[in-house]
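Field reference: sequence -> structure
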Amino acid sequence: MKAVIYCRVSTKKDTQETSLERQEAELLSLADELQYEVEAVIKDQASGFELDRPGILTLLDSIKGNDIEAVLIQDETRIGRGNAKIALIHCILKEEVKIISQTHNGELHLSESDSMVINIVSMVEEYQRKLHNLKIKRGMKRAVEKGFRPYKNLKNKGNKEGRERIEVPVEEIVRLRKNDLTFTEIAATLRGFGYNISKATVHRRFREYMETMDETNSL
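Structure field:
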């Protein structure tokens, strides 16, 4: 089982270095006791109320797609304080990574109020995903009703490896825009058909096309 150790102190004073070293030593011992293979020891010297910490950002990156099963901490305040703590705990747990606390000598036990807030945040995110999918579905339906035929434009049809389609169908962006779809709906529609494209890119490509047409017409 792979794990990452996270240590934090609130300031960069020399006296705090001892605390960091103590946290590391104690958590390495805990990892050995619980039979975790430590992949990295990450340290921060910053306020727990701050999200912009080099160590915590490295931690969040390390738990994505690296088979990390647990994050070992001294106690929950090492992750953060206040709203930052709740947000970061939520980010770790939603990656299905356990938080192991030395204080609890095992998995972190959240207070009832913290658990309630995290459950609410998770519920809101789930509804956001549902709304996003419904928006894509609506945009695709409107696009097809207005004549969008994806099978005429999609590249790499039948590509089993699922590679990203780099080219963007500008002609479809223009046509869907002329059919009164918003840039957001056009982007959602094209993403539904496999194009990795944002609202900003759709707007930029449409604007570039219109500028090119204006230049052509002025010749």
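Note: The chain is about 55% helix and 15% strand.
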